[in-house]
Automatic annotation (TrEMBL):
<dbReference type="InterPro" id="IPR002509">
    <property type="entry name" value="NODB_dom"/>
</dbReference>
<feature type="domain" description="NodB homology">
    <location>
        <begin position="90"/>
        <end position="274"/>
    </location>
</feature>
<dbReference type="InterPro" id="IPR011330">
    <property type="entry name" value="Glyco_hydro/deAcase_b/a-brl"/>
</dbReference>
<dbReference type="InterPro" id="IPR050248">
    <property type="entry name" value="Polysacc_deacetylase_ArnD"/>
</dbReference>
<keyword id="KW-0732">Signal</keyword>
<dbReference type="GO" id="GO:0016810">
    <property type="term" value="F:hydrolase activity, acting on carbon-nitrogen (but not peptide) bonds"/>
</dbReference>
<dbReference type="Pfam" id="PF01522">
    <property type="entry name" value="Polysacc_deac_1"/>
</dbReference>
<protein>
    <submittedName>
        <fullName>Peptidoglycan N-acetylglucosamine deacetylase</fullName>
    </submittedName>
</protein>
<feature type="region of interest" description="Disordered">
    <location>
        <begin position="39"/>
        <end position="60"/>
    </location>
</feature>
<feature type="compositionally biased region" description="Basic and acidic residues">
    <location>
        <begin position="39"/>
        <end position="50"/>
    </location>
</feature>
<dbReference type="GO" id="GO:0005975">
    <property type="term" value="P:carbohydrate metabolic process"/>
</dbReference>
<feature type="signal peptide">
    <location>
        <begin position="1"/>
        <end position="28"/>
    </location>
</feature>
């Protein structure tokens, strides 16, 4: 009896000891673990479980590292890579990336409807599968839908050609199931590509669509700044980059509100809004 009691006391002492040393280890660390946890918690009290995230991270953190390479790629592969239309053309094309996003895409479509303006949407395959009704709405309302990979990886840092092929084919399939045709328009996440990836996309019969006017809307600096980024850099034949979707903590309010400045002001200057395939006179399906 005494022996059994002694044994139990030893077990309890051991458990307390383990727990105490565990606690001490947490507190002995410079608070990294706890701070990180609290920071994330504060930042996102309602992180959704079912929202397909961008595998390569938010626009901001990736884009600040972007090398300026699209112009060189366009010169190397003029048949495959397009960045803008002709300077002699008074037409321009609005493009929206990273949707469909149930928080913002509907609002963007409402505004485009209001001004009767067509646009080109480069959607993530995972989000198209999650929100097919928004993709159908794009199509029904006269917009063009292109391929922006399935999970939005940083293709230069993380991916190889096999990954590109899988990401593009998976998205092409997802979109074909919704749209009823195979898109031939591709835009790379963050605009990141290199020679071999462009060559693979050409082999897959894609046109790689870049841009020459960046709204920088992912910085979320407000509608005035976003509109100014577009309006002050506008040229005839421009392809304008904006975002109707983002990470779970992204806010596209600036983008949405800026359209009320961008569209009427450019129309007043005599610009006509068209889709990317219209602007460049290229096919949008295979
Ligand atoms: Zn993107």
């Amino acid at each position: 009896m005494k022996k059994a009691l002694w044994k139990w006391m030893m077990v309890i002492a051991l458990m307390v000891g383990v727990q105490t040393s565990g606690l001490m280890m947490v507190h002995a660390a410079p608070g990294d673990v706890e701070n990180e946890w609290f920071w994330n918690k504060d930042r996102n009290p309602e992180r959704p479980d079912d929202f397909p995230e961008q595998q390569g991270g938010p626009e901001y953190t990736e884009r600040v590292r972007q090398p300026v390479s699209n112009i060189i790629l366009q010169q190397r592969y003029p048949e495959t890579v397009v960045l803008r239309g002709a300077l002699t053309d008074n037409r321009v094309a609005l493009t929206f990336d990273d949707g469909p996003d149930p928080r913002f895409t509907g609002q963007v479509l409402d505004i485009l409807n209001q001004y009767n303006v067509p646009a080109t949407f480069f959607v993530m395959g995972s989000r198209a599968e999650a929100y097919p009704d928004l993709v159908r709405r794009m199509q029904q309302e006269g917009h063009i839908v292109g391929n922006h990979t399935y999970w939005h990886p940083n293709l230069v840092e993380q991916a190889d050609i096999a990954t590109l092929e899988r990401e593009v084919a998976q998205t092409e399939e997802a979109l074909a199931n919704i749209l009823g045709y195979r898109t031939s328009l591709f835009r790379a996440p963050y605009g990141f590509l290199y020679n071999e990836l462009v060559e693979k996309l050409a082999e897959m019969n894609y046109t790689v669509v870049g841009w020459n006017v960046d709204s920088l809307d992912w910085r979320e600096l407000g509608a005035d700044d976003t509109a100014a980024n577009v309006l002050s850099n506008m040229e005839p034949g421009s392809i304008i980059l904006m975002h109707d979707g983002g990470e779970w903590d992204a806010d596209r309010t600036s983008t949405i509100e800026s359209l009320h400045q961008i569209i009427p002001q450019l129309q007043a200057q005599g610009f006509e809004f068209v889709t990317v395939p219209d602007l460049l006179n290229i096919p949008y399906q295979k």
